[in-house]
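Lab notebook, bench 4. Continuing the backlog of folding jobs that were queued last week. Each job is logged with the same field layout so the records can be merged later without manual cleanup. Today's entry covers Tripartite motif-containing protein 43B-like, a 449-residue chain. Filled in by technician R.K.

JOB TYPE: sequence-to-structure
TARGET: Tripartite motif-containing protein 43B-like
LENGTH: 449
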Amino acid sequence: MDSEIPEAFQKELTCLVCLNFLLDPVTIGCGHSFCRSCLCLFWEQAEAPASCPVCRQRSEQTNFKTNFLLKNLVSTVRKANLRQFLKCEEHLCGTHKQTKTIFCEADKSLLCLVCCQGQEHKTHRHCPAEEAAEESWEKLANQMRSLWEKIQDVERNLKKCDERADAWMEGENYYKGFITKEGQKIYKQIRKRQKELSGKKTDLKIIYTEFKKMSYKPNVELLQELGDKLKWLCSRIPGEQKDEPHLPLTGVSRHSCTEPQCLLPELPARPMAGLMDWLHRFRVNFSFNNEVSSQHIRLFDDARRLTYEHPSLHASLDGGTSKYFAAWGAQSFTSGKQYWEMLVDSSWDWAVGICKDSWIRKDDSILDESNRDKFLLLCVKQDDHYQLWTTAPTTPLYIERPLGRVGVFLDCDSGSISFVDVAKHSLLWRYDDGVCTFPVRPFICTGHR
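JOB STATUS: finished
OUTPUT FIELD FOLLOWS
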């Protein structure tokens, strides 16, 4: 160790999990600091809620920023230790007896100043050894962070597959009468995708472990080996360079880093002959009372929140700025049958259905299961796809999103409400008889992002 930097000081820059110098250090609420990768692995393996590996204090925050003060101090100490290491007599240049302070990028070797200007190396790219070593540590930290984010993406997709498989089987009875075979086929596809995601997560964890081992190596070994490891990784990640060094990792398949996404099942629309002619017998016209408030922005954000998980240190949910138009029918319905249509084609997020005056007057969440004052069909944009939901209770619908108009059929006599895809003459959803109590008003909320 460098005599100018006391051992006690260097110990303060040591991760309390791996006992090596802090790599991409993060500091949690209790004040203890760890390598980001060590904390990620510790929290993933722990069965209990996130807590400090040392004092066991619960950690409410999981999205940490790099502690740059510690990072810079570690960099200073590593440079000092490398200088001390290179000054040792056994590491001097055998030919010129000078300190090897130059790193040759071509053959991954350390050279003295005279050697780097010689015939063999003068055409190669060179840089100071300390600078090259720190650049390698930074590359390693960045690759580990990126790889961990990919592992967490797979984990989130795997959870979505689990939720959709369960929800699919729970809701299968609704579709069973006309599409049982299609439902079973999609269920098998979901299970197949789960298997692919599980395999990918296993392969990525193996690669991540290899990089974690790299973080324990001395500066010189890191300089000599990291480049080939990075090329090997890039050859297996879509969109990266395709160099093919011969560095196989045990148990990792050749195409392990292809991106299997969580399957979003959708039942095809089933047209119903005579449906629209029958519904138009109950067509009604009415005017709207308009209102826009913060409550209706929550309507879609709450729905989106059901499908986003935040187990990663790097995951975040950015709702963005929303502008919504919400309207209630000026007329209430208490008896008879009524049918109306709503245009939703130009909206990314929308909700149509009925609600009671008691909900209109309250600043209430759309997904409050204790409140049955609204019966709605929602369409919510999530990532690059759309998801249909119903309320009371909140239920995902795995059926194609309607384009153009959505029809709403209210049967006050039976206390039920149905939604139809006007363009395809198909039923989207029907609430059971007796779910509605009256009076109720038509409701629509549409939005753009």
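OBSERVATION: The chain has three domains: 7-130, 139-234, 275-448.
SIGNED: R.K.
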